[in-house]
User: Fold these one by one.
Assistant:
Number 1:
Amino acid sequence: MNSWHRDAEQTAVCSERCEALNAVHERFHNETSWTQHAPKNAERSGRGLGCGCVCEYHPFTTGANLDAAQGKRVSNNLEKSKECSCPVWLVACRGCTKESVTRPESRLGQHKLAPMSGLIPSKVNVLLIGGGGREHALAVAMRKSSRLGELHITHPGNPGLADLGRAVDVPVSHKEFYRLVQYCDKNAIGLVVIGPEDPLADGYADALAKDGRLVFGPVAAAAKLEADKAFAKDIMRAANIPTAEGRAFTEFQSAKEYLSSRLSMAGRGAQPTPPVIKAAGLAKGKGVIVPANADEAQRALERIMVKKEFGDAGRSVVIEERLEGTEVSVLAIVDGQNILILPPAQDHKRLLDGDKGPNTGGMGVFCPARNIDGTLLAKVEREVLVPVIDALRREDIAFRGVLYAGIMLTPAGPKVLEFNCRFGDPECQAILPRLESDALELLYAAAAGKLDKIDIRWNNDATCCIVLASEGYPEKPVNGQTITGLADAAKVPGVTIYHAGTMREPNGVIKTNGGRVLNVVARGTIAEVARERAYEAVSRIKFAGMQYRTDIG
């Protein structure tokens, strides 16, 4: 851990900020003794918590986001938490006390602040880059905002998006960035929202950002966390982030020899199962192979490095230990300084019921996840999210956008499977329907570095998302199948249908046009209601070869 400051002058600044935080806390508890909610051994005084100790804050949690006047949520190195009903997080000096006050899970990410007066224009023209179910969900959420001017979309071939926005009339290619820049200038685009991982890795955020135009999505250097698994492993090692042991290889023979040595250890009982084989680059969520035996492990390596089934994504591979436990997705919106953790969701990556079959981009998700509570979420924040953002800042890389940590909850604690640098798909489709406050305001504030200035509210509903996939997915999806029953399915209470891989014929008929075709999302007061509604809607949709899991939620 890096100490924020060590000398006397900075200690005085620390004390002032601690005192300010105490004042914020007391403001929200003016009917209750402050000491009833304060960390043990802490005394309210002119020296912050009264101990005169040296605080250790990560650099990105210092400065304006400790401003008590805003009463904002602060992410920090918490040691141990206890629940408090205060709508802010009170931060104790690390080293003098072992407890800090945090909000319970039910209040996670909710601020009780005044609206963003003057921070966001009354009307904002938005360019949305991407054409899948995630982007359809983002478009639906932003269309609800009274601040939205005109929504511009890059993928009008998606019928859901075509109904919500104006199609961009220039090429959308990293080889012709200047065309898209000119389009944004001409149409007074104030915010660019980048959905998929490829444009982020290609540097769209770098190219499109300018004075007067913000971009929601990390720059290419930050997007390497997802685009290069070997880079991500190096960052995690440097930041001491818990993750699976693994090694990266660029040469097939070296990778083969290492894999053989791992498999021989397994044969002696040192490792009971083969390691996981990962294409290090971007592979649309399908570059992770979890072999069932030694032969499958060898074939996986050949598929990636020799047959090049995943293209350039397989130029490097990561061979890592297999983690046992349950998987959970933890997504956070980051504005360069502040972290806002979103409601946790649980994804289902395998194609078939019972977590069998090949890995996919995701076959369904429910939110909130049932296998992670507030204490565990705070541990993920403390040991994973804060350190990785801090590690990037040490490399002069400011992260703005969505940081997605795929976490395995192992007997030894949470460990990182991978990082993504955008909204997960289909996690996004399950999380956004729970957002009660203005989605456009949230995205704009994150891009502006002002997450601490806005009012964020979530409803208490549960959501369930079922992915309908084409025949042959994930290897060779069959396209062009006529889809029926969409209007009937949309009539189920609480149901929204997002288009992921569809197309509209000139006669208005909707057909399949991708591996994952539709996302059927339902809200309910409890998880069982959401699940029942989602599957009721699914039963009304038909297309030849339709695949879906029956055990989501």
Note: The mean pLDDT is 80.
Number 2:
Amino acid sequence: MIWEQTPLIIILSTVAVVSALLAYAAWRRPGATLTDTFIGLMLAVTWWAAAYLVQLAESNMPAEFFWAQVKWFGLVAIAGHRFIKTGRSGIIPLAGDTLVENMNDAVFILDLTSNLVSINPAAERIIGLSEEDALGRSGEDIFVQKTRLSPGWCREVMIHTEVVLGEGEEQGHYDFRLSPLYDHRGRLTGRLLLLRDITQTVRGEEALHRKVEELTILNAVAVAGSEVGNKLDLIKRTAEVLFRTRFSGKIDLLLFGEPGDNIPDTPPRETPHIVEQDRRRRPSHGLRIPINVGDVMIGMIQAENSKKETLADSDVRFLTILAGQLATGIEKIRLFDAERRHRQEADTLRQAAAAMTSDLDLKQVLDNILIQLEHVVPNDSSCLVMLQGDILQTVAARGLGAENESILRDRPMNEDTLFREIRRSGQPVILPATQCDQRLQNWQPGHPVCCWMGVPLMVRSEVIGCLTMYSQQVAAYGQPEADLASAFAGHAAVALENARLFGEVKRLAVTDELMGISNRRRLFELGEREFSRTQRSGRPISVIMLDLDHFKRVNDTLGHAVGDQVLRAVSGRCLKNVRSVDIVGRYGGEEIVIVLPETEISQAGQTAERLRQIIANEPVETNAGPVNITASFGVTVNSPEVTALSGLIDRADANMYLAKNAGRNCVKGYE
């Protein structure tokens, strides 16, 4: 009996030992769990218990006790196994698996060879593979293809970075975390990869960054609009700001050229830059946003991406706002420039007017007009032409030499097409290119001229002359210069009129209004000056006095109006037939005195005789018909006993009465 039971004990003991060894091996296996080890140990204990019960049976224990012990040990083993399976390995892993399965974050489990051993549904959606297709594949290869991670990233112990998955609108940003997995003994058994979707956060940050960037650009443009002095500098500052933003290399600022704008050559293409653009041309590609001031397009923003990517709607809206900001800045600069220019022009005109009216001498005024004209409207040469009756006279010139005879000579107005046009319109006439214009033949100077402008001089709506300007620059004069020159011409006409009136007043103050010769005051003023000079030099000075014969009869028979005509005719003949240095003045009534400096008595007598014959031999044409008139002359020369001009005049007066007494129409005092 015993020997019959002993092999069974040996077999059960052997199975128990093998179960214990398997439990130990399970515990030593990498990645083994406590549950698997515990189950192995429970089986080993069960087999040992079975061997023990067999041994008890060999000791003649009742059979019922033996099978009761076997039953209880079996029930304990089964209960322990079920407890471990349900309590330790069922409930907790089931709850953990459910939690992982329902996570929004993607979870990947990788073994030590970087192969996927488990993924959740969120991970399936991200990599586009089912769990069956993904398990066993290399996680390193999958993420190197889908992200910018470098090969070998799985060999890192821990990684925390941001990765981008997908393309176009489906592109997403993820927080990438790689963490190691250790067993209960601290040995590395694999890696846990967690991907958390942060796309909305990143896009929100990018939108906030773009908004801050756009506000920074708009603020910089607004500040530049207040600081810079011209629209070209504003465009440059804007280009510099754009170059430091996401728009670098995508934007061209096209500024339409205006007369006087100095638009530079195109800078390198890699920066936002300014391109001179003809109004008749338009860019043939790219997004074009006009820069409008009112209803006038003054420029354009051309957006072009070198990668041929379409600009977002937010970029288009921003560039539209930028175009409005630039238009506001440019308009502000234009208004400021216009106000500053008008202020400068007004100040220049004020100074020019003050300079032109500072002197009432006509010759000096004429010279001042051309000098000040050069300050107001720059020119290479100029001239001032006055209309005297039907004749054009060049009364002042600047920058024109003697070779410009066609301009400097007097010429009939009817021969000058340009002046007739100026006189007819009362407006400036501009010839922007003079090379082929035949109208300039009377105004062509000796030096090369590319542009000409004539501006009328007007007094009481009547054209009295014109100012002409020459420039060697083509299209140097336009409407702004014409308006400025017209305003200047108004001041110049006032200065000329003032000088003319002053000359007239001055002439009337020293001229006899009836006879048109020096009055008595002027006669003595000039005569005393010459008499004093001859007294110092010892040179001779002679005096002639004449009086019309029977002049009272003319007044009584023909009237005082005819008498006045006779007096003016006689005084005119005297002025015309003496030297320019001789002084002719009315002494009183119809008596005329002529002072002849540096003249001996014989020469004075000859002059008096010539005048007597001219008066007697040429009847005076009057409203009453020809009037014959004669005059009596008295002549004298200075001597030591005469100390004043009045003494000489008295002696000439005495000799004139001798001529009266001698029968009139004769000369006395020089025989």
Note: The two ends are 209 Å apart (CA to CA).
Number 3:
Amino acid sequence: MPLGIFSRLALMVFVIGTTVSAAAREPNRVAPKDLRPRETRVHPVFATVGFETGIVTLVSIVGNPGSSEPPSIDWGDSTDPTLAVVADCSSRECSVEIVGTHVYQETGVYTIEIQFPSEETETTTATVSTASDFVILSIGDSVASGEGNPVVTLLKGGPAWDDSGSCHRSSLAGPALAARQVMDENENVTFVHQACSGDDIASVIRQFKDARAKLPRIDILLITAGANEIAGGFGNLICECIEVPVCVTAALENGDDLTLRSTCARDEEFKNRIAADVAGLADKYAELALTIQCQKLDDNTGEVIDDPDCADQGLPIPSVVIITEYFDPTHDRRGNFPGPLTVTSCSGYLLNTEEWEFMFDNVVIPLNEQVASAAALHGWVLVDGIADEFLKHGYCASAGLGPGLLGKSWVVKLPQSFRMQGDQNGTAHPNRKGQEVYRDRIFEAIVESNPPVTTVSGIAAGLRYAFGSPTPQSVELRLTASNLVRESGVGRIYFAVDEPACDADPSALNRCSLYVGPFTIDTPGLHTVTFFSENASGHGMERAKTVEVFIDK
């Protein structure tokens, strides 16, 4: 699996000679249990066609089952069976859960068969349907996927993720947690988790295209992307800054050209390279923005045109696009760059203050400035304040490496990554507390920005009016707005008759009228009625819609 910008921060912290404890290198696996159930409960599965089910519980086993190998799962759709993962039960009423994840390619009801080594079987069902009335889609890199936070850790029989590939998608990621909060309070909400560890913006664009081709609508698009564009990915950056044995070995095996540097902070050439990569983000965000809007650059003229492949297929354009800034792993619990004593206690070896400061000044700050600029330029909602919240919660915000010393740090450390997922890839990503910061900020942004949906109805001579059709009668119109995210609510409703300048833009609202009740059109001719509404905060405004009223008398 390709490693992203924060995937190898441990290699920066654990420099040559660092010795990871045997316990960190060799996770303490729980002894296998006999999975022959003493008392079992089966759980139905509900899934969206074309997307991972995510980790779902199929069977709960009450009591102490003993020891055995994991069961296999036949998902009922003619695909090859997969091995289940055995997880500690999330409730107090059972001992273990049999879990798995799968992708169904067709809608329908499927019979799932769980085959235990004892040759006993349990069955449950999967109901696979299309997306609901409100869809939240998350795309991005390892921060958005939830790297470092497996759904089932090694100590619980895993690790296991919400995807069957190498993207390391986790329901403990900030976007997934925020979507779950929306789903818990509102009906008919679907969350699609497409973010993938290690992906750059070109790959994120492919994530979006793949999801959009399968979805009838996208209401909220969540993005965390851009970090993997810098110096060929942060893993590369770290390898070039410090002579790390694992990098040298990999370079020799792959035949890569690896430049080793004694320090990056004093290497002006390297600083310039990073600066150029950061500056190049603007064009890559612009390409992403065009893709989202079903547009592209004309190959001959370079002008922005509608993408016929997208438009011809009627693919959806998101109602709201939300992009998050990146967290700051570089400060200690006092909000300072870690000094020698702090670094030694949090990493075991010295990474000097100058290098932490280099990381902050040359990566964290300019990267977040590019994210903010892209949001302003393309009309995206910016989720900021995340780096500030991490100010006293970076990698070295708590001393020591043990689980009892996590303390103030909201960042996964190298031994924790080995202990939870069996590799170093989770290192330097937000831990559960850090992802909860993302959750809270993203949820706030969804509530603040999600617009209502306004509908219009007309009555002519006591009968429902068919918009656009001629009528000799006057037409009374009523506007109604509702919000599928109840926390967002409904604020003011705007409308205009034969006023093309009225639009859902703060600068054009003075050309609109405020709707306070039914209004009537009785002047002969063809009239265009524009209407839209805003949410309770006033920050989420619906795109303007129009209908025609034809008074023929």
Note: Residues 7-34, 401-406 have pLDDT under 50 and may be disordered.
